[in-house]
Design brief:
Elements (H helix, E strand, L loop, with lengths): L6 E6 L15 E5 L8 E7 L7 E3 H19 L16 E8 L2 H4 L2 H15 L2 E8 L6 E3 L13 E4 L4 H12 L4 E6 L3 H17 L8 E7 L12 H16 L3 E3 L4 H4 L19 H14 L5 E3 L7 H4 L1 H5 L29 H12 L23 H19 L2 H7 L14 H36 L7 H7 L12 E3 L11 E3 L14 E5 L4 E5 L2 E5 L3 H11 L7 H5 L33 H24 L2 H21 L12 H23 L1 H10 E2 L5 E2 L7 E4 L2
Length: 714
Amino acid sequence: MSKATPRVVFQCDDAVIPDDLPSIEQATVQYIRTRGPEATLDLRIEDFYHLVLAEVSGRHADLVRLAAYAYRADLDVSRGGERDSDAWRWSRHLIFCIPVGDPDFWNGDEVRSALSSTLSFLTGDRWDFCFSQSDPQIRQIPLEIAARDLYPRPGVVTLFSGGLDSLCTLVESAMKGERPVPLGHWPSARHESRQKQLIEAIERHNPAWSLPLLGAHIVRGGKEPKESTQRSRGFLYGCLASAVAAEIGAPKVYLADNGPISLNFPINDQLVGALASRATHPKFLDRMTRLMELVLRQPVAIFNPLRLRTRAEALGILRQARAEHLIGLTTSCSTGTRLPAATPHCGGCSQCIDRRFATIAANMEIHDPVEKYQQDVFIDVLNPWDRATTAYSYARFARTVSLLDEDALFTRFMELLDIPTSTEMSAEDAIREALDLIKRHATTVLRVLEAQSGTYLPQLVSGRVSAASLIGKVMGEQAGRRVIDRRPQVIVLAPSDPTPLALVPVPSGSAGTDIEDIPAILAWQGKGWRVRFAGKETVLNESVGTKRLAKLLREPGREFTPEELDAPRDRRSQTEPIPDLLQSGFHVETAGNADPIIDAKAVKACKKAIAELKAEHLAASDKGDAERAAEIAEEIRKIERYLRSATGLAGKIRDEPTPAWNRYRAVRTSIRRSVETIQQQHRVLGTHLDQSLNLNGPFSYAPSELVSWIVELP
């Protein structure tokens, strides 16, 4: 497999390809056409209730067409697939030649930079653009509508998928009187029909809500897509909604996902890399808003109204509207396959699992019965294996979050640093909000598990529910206790290192041996690492993180300091102990923050000054001196802002990062990156390592069940 990043030039609707186009060397050329007999992209916008609008034109049409081209190209260039075990082709370099009405505007450095950075964050690829003058015939996108004005002043365009989150957002907007215009993407007649039926049901529920559904037909033509991750969909939806909002005069757009999904936390081990959507991530929405400020004729703000709510909390909107019965008309399954109408949800994908937990937590299971799922996530043995992994890691994530305080959560989930700051809220306050959100999500998940475990305990004891089900695994694995493996033990030796490694179970070696009984291998082969686990082999590049990981695997249960992981086997140095992370404060400055460091004496002085000022403020208020009271209040706010910027969570004093801390963080980061690489190439092993490695405090590999590892170091 070539290590070169796939590089493709897309010529869109006969746009000019400049002779001096950068990066065209060693690139393949593909074509995207929206017209004629060789069209590969169907692009139309039409409505169900007929808005007053003839077409989307000008820069708005160019924006929608550009996003459609990007979406089409995203499907056409593979990230390597299962055969690319080394993930050399994961990231791609996509170059677009696009016809537009105003090439000078689109070729501006600021616009092209905003386009590239927005798409790069969303997809993990490199995007370049070159614009040329378009044919007048393609400068408009027909809307195919008649004239009927439902909203003299539309308030918001809200993306409408027909799922739970988009339903809750639309209902809440209608209740607030925001005059929402729902906008759907119709890649098939089935999607169109389902969304129209749901809109009709909403209007029957409350005839005062007149919802003019717009639908966009943006459909890929030709052969089956080469890539299924579709990370660019968020850009397509955002551009489409923003362009329509600008055309009809709506001042804002809603792109809705519940908070834990939006923040892109690793809620389950299968949602990593390109499978983890960033379509409503705060950083992506921030970049989209800035891009729209450059492109649109009038400002359009982009929001996620559910960003601070779990899915269970979002369902409270339907209870408030007395619209819980609408849940049964929504579809959340992400498998992409067409399932029978009687069981429209697979039950084992991440979206189905999150939906089941949320409806049970919100006491709305009567509107989302288990009979609508092909599998019961709680008591069935989920099949195939990745569904079982998804379900168990979903529960495990909640358990992990529940056991950590805010400092430890921040240390573990560095994704929090991607949350953009704003004038209304400091970075630290935004992070606190996110941590509180994910804590509430974890609490909800554990409460549902506790209730379901109590319900099915008799069946589990009697054997009518398998121990391999989610309930069986959760109840069988007690926190802090390791499953005892009673198989015979042997000492495994690595050829390049004669030192005994660890006691591990003896593989049977018989013809009928299960895959789990075959020894796992992590062996250095001169130019890379050979990996074998659960019947699958792959090769990893040389990295210091994998070398450190190998030392952990060959001594399961042993705790290592950073120095011990880097020291030769025959001399374990005793060095400075690892700092107590849970007592060292909220170290934002270690991630590049230049906030001032404050000592205990200064903190005490600040708090004393605040107390004195509050007394003065009360006295000024009693005297009716509003001007002096306002001045004192501003002084108090300044001191409080300084304290927040100079201290950590709960006012803990920040410490200067020590060399030991920096060394610890570097080792932890290298191991995490190695595990992330493994996750992309060997999902089963990546999941196992994520569940078995302790990277907070002393490093260790402590699987719940011992694994036979043969480790060969360089």
